[in-house]
Amino acid sequence: MSRRDVIRKKQVAAFESLESRTLLSIVLPASSLKNLYRPNSSQQATAPSSSIVVTSTATVWQPMTSAELTAAINSANLGDTIILHAGTTYVGNWTLKNKTTGSGFITIESDQLANLPEGVRVSPADAVHMPKLVSAGGNVPVFQTEYPNASGTTIGAHHFKFLGLEMTGPTDNSDLVALMQLGTTDTIQDTLQEMPHDFVIDRCYMHANLAPGSIYSSQNLRRAIALNTGATDITNNYIQEMHDANGDSQAIGGSSGAGPYNILNNFLEAASENILFGGSAVSIPNTVPSDIVIHGNYFYKPVDWMQGTNGATKWAVKNLFEIKAGRRITVDGNVFENNWSSGQDGTAIVIKIDQYSSSRPWQVTEDITFQNNILRHSNNAIAIQGRDWEGDSTTTSPYGLVRRITIKNNIWDDINKTPWGTWNDPNNIGGNYLYLTQGPLNVTFDHNTVLNGRTIVNVDSSQYPTTGFVFTNNIVAHNTYGVFGTDASGIGDPVFDMYFSDSAARFNKNVIMDSQAKSSNYTKSRPNTSPYFSEHQGHQFLAHRVVRCRICRSSQRQLSPDQQQSLSQRRQRRNGRRGRYRRREYCDIRRDRRRVVRADRNRHHALRGQSQQCLNRELECRFFQLGHRCGCQ
Q1: CB of 553 closer than 8 Å to CB of 586
Q2: Rg over CA atoms, the chain
Q3: Which end of the chain lies in a sparser environment, N or C, as judged by fewer CB atoms within 10 Å?
Q4: How many Å apart are CA 7 and CA 144, to the nearest integer?
């Protein structure tokens, strides 16, 4: 039984009679998502009034008013479908409850879902094909799961799909905490049976209240999805204008859920953190957000938020992505864009531990992989903090709970203080690639290309060493400080001696963009291999990196299915023969392979010629479309 199955079995232990159902989990790239949901054309409602269609296995509800939608959700059983009419506005607050009758998912969908192709991210232009669900105000969400009772006997809501819906904040512009409140961070949710689970949110458009013709909102809407659930898939959605002057805001934020989660191919726009895991105390023993895949998303903050230009409100921003607790999280193939100093120092990616307590010793951040991403336009790039140290002896975490962090195969472009740090204060510091503090363990940086304006590594807290630190095969700018330690007597070698002295540390096979004269500071690089210094400009390296990735992927191309079948048949015949027959078949195989290699070689030359004529931004776009998979740079 896989780890995912074990987690899910725990989540449904409260109703064993339903254990035979399985969550439809998405583990494929966004471009390959198929059969997430196949609408039944016979269920597409066209009637102008509410109707109910009952079959031998399920009921199709077609509510036309908010009251009818409330009745449909309350009465629906597992396997039922609730079809909402595109262009119709439903105002209310709908509570999702535990359902025990029927099997499968309760599906709430648009009657024009066929106009929203499966596996394709929606946009605001698709709103014409969606029903509009509006919060009733009074700080109540559009959808929320049933709140646990004090006796602890509540079983969490489960098995709901939301397909092709538009959700928005109250039309009176009043404050709202969440559009979808799935589970709670309150201590009353303290058992797995109380945790909601098995949700699919696909092809939905979620945003704050927008004036007609405007793309910006002044509404305080804290988050689109409060994710405190078990297994959940969030795919192909467009989440816009999440911000709150009174607290941190996220497109997706959760801390009291166990996962697993698939967050795939979404547009995610929020002021504080576009996605945040952790940050609130988890009351369920031995539970942190786990087994999470974040793939193919676009994390974005509008630059107009910086100074309130072009009709936007000025909002305080913090990070593009933050983990404060979690395990087995993979962030792969995403684009992160725009982050500046405002609410914090403008660091795009933050990995740390928070809300530790001696009464909650299960808080941990471990086994994090951040790979194949593009991040551009930020004051600082990434910070990794090894301990939760801001508190007393009961809330300060022990050493070693942030561990096994891998950052590989990413492009980090325009990591500079101008304008991302100096826009509001010319004395702000920025351009730092990596900040290490409080001793995270077993941190690996490999095959990254970085266009940074200040330090490569900035490390402190020598009393908590960052053991097992590996920094290899990267292209990065040195600038004034390079590898810098707060308490070290200089850059380079003194930093290695003070902070990275363990035998497992590695700092080698890197290309550092700066004068050869600075190489004398790096004679002790582990394992005693000095980095190569080059005076090439950063964008030249970026262009070379993209070309090389394209060539390497092409050269690793597999044979076509027909060629593979032919080779397999030949191998089978060859293995049953001797002498000259075996030799002849072997030569045929080698000949076919040579043909493929020859075709690839011609393709290499064409790609090299094309790429050298491209601007940097065009290169990045082509790089992302291809996918930065090869590790041979």
Answers
A1: no
A2: 27
A3: N
A4: 23
Both tokens of 319, joined, read: 């990070």
User: H-helix or E-strand containing 591?
Assistant: helix 579-612
Beta strand spans in 305-454 (E): 319-323, 326-332, 335-339, 347-351, 365-371, 374-378, 380-385, 402-408, 411-415, 434-437, 441-446, 449-452
In angstroms, the CA 510 to CA 533 distance is: 9
Is there a contact between 351 and 385 (Cβ–Cβ < 8 Å)?
A: yes
Q: How far, in Å, CA of 168 to CA of 478, rounded?
A: 46
What is the token pair recorded at 527? 């394992």
Kind plus residue range of the DSSP H or E element containing 234:
strand 232-235
- Residue 427 CB contacts under 8 Å (≥ 6 apart), including other chains: none
What do you get for the CA distance between the two ends of the chain, in Å?
A: 37
3-state secondary structure of 223: strand
Residue 321 to residue 344: CA distance in whole angstroms: 13
Angle, alpha carbons 78-84-87 (nearest 5°) = 165
- State how far Cα 360 lies from the chain centre: 26
The whole-number average pLDDT for the span 464-471 is 92
* Both tokens assigned to 71: 């009745």
Query: Burial of 452 by CB count in 10 Å (0-12 exposed, 13-18 middle, 19+ buried)?
Result: buried
Residue 446: is it exposed, middle or buried by C-beta count within 10 angstroms (0-12/13-18/19+)?
buried
Question: Residue 243 forms beta bridges with which residues?
Answer: 221
Strand partners, 178: 223
532-568: per-residue pLDDT in tens? 666 555 555 555 544 344 333 333 334 455 655 665 6
Q: Quick one: tokens of 560?
A: 């076509």
Tokens of 302: 């509008």
Contact, 364 vs 287, CB < 8 A? no
Residue 619's pLDDT band, with cuts at 50, 70 and 90, is: very low
Question: Tokens for 102?
Answer: 């029927």
Query: Do 420 and 377 meet the contact criterion of CB atoms below 8 Å apart?
Result: yes
Do 167 and 142 touch, CB atoms closer than 8 A? yes
* DSSP string covering 2-34: -HHHHHHHHHTGGGGGGTT-------S-GGG--
For the record, the structure tokens of 367 come out as 């086994």
CA atoms 399, 466, 501, 480: torsion sign: negative
Least confident of 397-411, 482-496, 608-622: 608-622
Crossing angle for the helix pair 538-555 and 579-612, to the nearest 10 degrees: 150
Question: CA torsion, points 353, 182, 230, 131, in degrees to nearest 10?
Answer: -130
Say if residues 121 and 295 touch (Cβ distance below 8 Å): no
Give the residue from 113, 73, 262, 249 showing the smallest Cα distance to 169: 249
Alpha helices in 172-276 (DSSP H): none
